Amino acid sequence: MDGGAGSGRDAVWALLDEADTVAGRLAALSFDGLTPAEVLAVLARRAEWARRGPAIDHRLLSLLTAEAVPAELGATTLAKGLAHRLRISHGEARRRLDEAADLGPGRALTGEPPHLDDGSPRINQYHHPEHLLLPEEDDSG
User: Structure pTM?
Assistant: First the structure.
């Protein structure tokens, strides 16, 4: 995982530091002055943040799976290294790796991201669901 010049390595760490700062400041706030509607709005925003987390994790775990060597992580398997580092069970680490394999970005056999856009239309030309909603035309006449 060399990162390269175009990886945005500095941006990743800067944004993580910023997120830690914001999370700490938010945790230190008193929510006593919020109305019930505002509490729900805050919970909705936090839920949106929480839903974004797994998508980021899937990308990171896919990258880790493609490029990491378990011995470099001080483990015999990637799941064991992940479990140790994240302080989770081996089973949870395995579940996360399996989920990332299913839901994360794919890789070609060569390790490169697949180039799926071949310029063809993105709509199946033979499937027209709008026709299912229209009344059939009367051909007698």
Answer: 0.66
